[in-house]
């Protein structure tokens, strides 16, 4: 048989050699690969079922290892394809078509490992490659390989983050990362009676969700007008707070957004903080998207004033590229979470344990089971250091500046919504040939708004590019391009400009 064994391992020179059945994956050159065809699987593993693996068969160590290697191989193939600009971002199917090509049935009896490996491969086959350099569709783009390694390891450890007792290492890691990100230490009194919340018109929809979940109702969330760049207008905030007070209502909370979801605007934090101080309101900063700017000296000024907030949300899975999901919340005042959320469950949080029980952080949070999201974050930060993360952020902003410059250079084909974006969101309309000579104004915008979703459909069919679109306020549909992946380079932006014109010219 001259068929290449699936167990062959390309040495650095890529010459296949056979691995021992139970090869420890310790050598860095041990990049294992095998072909797509399942026939090539060695007979000894393909016919096995789960009971042949650990812990059901205690002699099943080698088989278990082999099975996991193969799943890892499938993942590695996917990673390579993700970064291959010659590969499509997606192979789009309608839901009904996809149901036909996928076998999603749960069988009554065990399936062979061979089938499960097939299933693993199929699961990725129709998946959108969010790490592809031309995927600009979401706030979380990119695939950081170190973070992926962290996530694999986390999955193997399968840890619930409630106590030091069961997650000693990861609890300490969480403390390290949060102390590192801790730049707040001033305590301000705040009003605690619940009634009215304030946030900008362009803030994230989760604020509405929070108002509803807390039982306030979405009507008790006041949306403050924004300026042309999408930033909250502090004088309007002050006016609206006064208005509620005059009606006898109790404002208690203001959320400023650092990096709005669509336009990437940074609300003026100092000015918002002044209003909060004046009225003694809780000042929260939603930096889920923009928080990463703090990691670079050239961008951190955008969040000046954040140190005056009582709380911040920050999602490292967005600008920082940590694998999904990794969302953090930071409070200025120590002990606040434990005093609010502690339920003192006797079976978890015994006070007479043989170590300092303040490390049992599980009682600080509202959920019980909590996934370990720290390791992939900590490992990525270790790999880059602060300086690497600064470069990471600077790269995203450099690519954004390059895109804006390109769009301006092709102003016949592209119309920017905001020609000085504050974050890596770039909002624009693509202008097809027939509309290029039309007079600017609402009529042209209306027609442009009809064109963008059709162009998006063409992108998905072509599989070459993905950019999201939406309307906003009075603006009809426009594209919002996000650069939050380290894979994006100038060539990808040049490609994007050409590809949009190739796909949309005749619309
Ligand atoms: C993504 C995002 C959120 C939501 O964060 P989740 O952790 O995904 O719930 C909130 N606010 C802003 C500005 C965001 O961009």
Structural class: alpha/beta
The count of β-strands is 13
CATH architecture of the domain at 168-373: 3-Layer(aba) Sandwich
> Runs with pLDDT <50, length 5+?
1-43, 182-193
Output the helix-strand order: EEHHHHEHHEHEHEHEEEHHEEHEEH
What is the CA-based Rg, rounded?
26 Å
Arrangement of strands in the largest sheet: 5-4-6-7-8-9
Ends apart, CA distance between termini: 54 Å
What ligands can be seen in this structure?
pyridoxal-5'-phosphate
Average pLDDT, rounded to a whole number, is 88
Q: β content, as a range?
A: 5-15%
- What is the subunit arrangement here? single chain
Enter the CATH topology name of the domain at 168-373: Aspartate Aminotransferase, domain 2
Task: Report the CATH superfamily of the domain at 168-373.
Answer: Type I PLP-dependent aspartate aminotransferase-like (Major domain)
Organism: Hyalella azteca (Amphipod)
GO molecular function: glutamate decarboxylase activity; pyridoxal phosphate binding
GO cellular component, one term: cytoplasm
Protein name: Glutamate decarboxylase
